Amino acid sequence: MIYGWTYLKETHIRGEFLFSIIKPYLREDDRVLDVCCGYSPLANPLLEAEFRITGFDIHPSPIQYLKDKFHRGEWYQVSCEEASFTGFSVFLLLGATVSWDISFHHFLSRALESNEPRLILLDTSIIPPNAVWIKIYDKVITYLQNKEYKVVSAGKYESGMKDANKRSYSLLERQK
Question: Is CATH 3.40.50.150 the right assignment for the domain spanning 6-174?
């Protein structure tokens, strides 16, 4: 299986920006689950700040990259259908919304129920022709709002990635 998004290795600017958004909301004991993590743009800033991060992706190349580069993180090659993680208070859905199909929806429903994360951070590319991704992103936001999450921060930014520079983010917090 070939991983077609190698430009996602360009994580520094994206990761630092997203970390600046989520950092004020993080707690010392948070466990972070990076869903469909790819090259995990937040791995470095989270690990440097002593947070625990676990990521999974169906593609082997980014998982091997993360295992080689970030030994303190936990990285798994697994599909959404097979994924079963518990004990996480923060979810990262960074670009994962492009995978919004029935298996992703089932995974997210199961994961929300078994973890009840306090925070969920989403981001997506907003450059054309990704208008479909933006609609999916909005659908995920609405889905989470119906699950008692509230958007506490949202906006647009430039990620420094040549093929997906203009991006949108939303940070949601559970309101229970």
Answer: yes
